[in-house]
Fold this sequence. Notes:
This protein is mainly alpha-helical. The protein has 2 domains: 1-30; 59-117 and 145-292, MetI-like (MetI-like fold), CATH 1.10.3720.10. Helices cover 75% and strands 3% of the residues. It contains 14 helices and 2 strands. The protein has helices spanning 2-35, 54-61, 63-95, 101-107, 110-113, 116-126, 133-140, 152-180, 184-192, 197-208, 210-225, 229-234, 246-256, 260-292, and strands at residues 38-41, 46-50. A two-stranded antiparallel sheet has the order 1-2. Helix 3 runs parallel beside helix 8 (152-180) and helix 3 (63-95) packs antiparallel against helix 11. The longest helix has 34 residues, at 2-35. The chain is globular. The protein starts with a helix and ends with a helix.
Amino acid sequence: MAMAGTERIKHLFLWPAVLLVLLVALFPLVYSLTISFQQVRLVPPSPPRFVGLDNYLTLFARPRFWQVLWNTGVISLTSVAIQYVLGFAIALALHARVPGERLFRITFLLPMLMAPVAVALIWRMLFHSTLGPVNQLFSLFGLANLPFTTDPVWAKSSLVIVEVWQWTPFVILLMLAGLQSLPEDIYEAARLEDASPWTQFWTITFPLLLPVSAAVVFIRLIESMKIIDTVFVLTGGGPGVSTETLTLYAYQEGLKKFNLGYTSALSFAFLIIVLVFGAIYLALLRPQIEKRI
Length: 293
């Protein structure tokens, strides 16, 4: 009887919290999905009007949507690939106890702890076309100033540089934790077989860390696809729309043009793209990961 009473009291306290979380999480999602099938504008104000799939058809018919989708993919894939390679290499160096590794362990987290807006402001000053220290350094060597924020290719490259600088420490942190969890006896056996460090990496380290690598890359890809603050401050989506991302495009349509129906359709299209990408990514890596678990 006492146990039954305890179970009832547990549910009495648990269910209100569960219902509150579901209400807070699901209501905006369901409401936004409903709005995506309506024509809703705040300026000029107009009553909601059901339009079915018109918002989605308009979205997919606009070249700008495909342009910002391409921009988002290029920035995300390029920056995450560099973050992973660079972060893995630095994690290996720290794990091998290179000189100064204690100091680096303390300082390498600082970029990740800074607000993206603050990071973008710092790099915007560094990349200034005439007054920035980077171009001033180039001038000292007689080189021409680079259009970091005014040329489409260089603007994308600038965003990739900022993303790599800020988020490589995240990759280092997780990969270093993975390296420290590997069993040492495997490496001792490999050294007894006269296996070179390169052979040990490709036959032991990399395969054993594949589950960690897959998780790190997946997390960073999903997060980088949502980039908006760095783009907004550093390039503003320009020149033109060459660096405009999906989230910045949604901001422009929703909070500047107040086209809520179209913005909701854009947001759900983005959600579907992320879900499809995640499903394909996990389906491709699952057989390799399951072999090593």
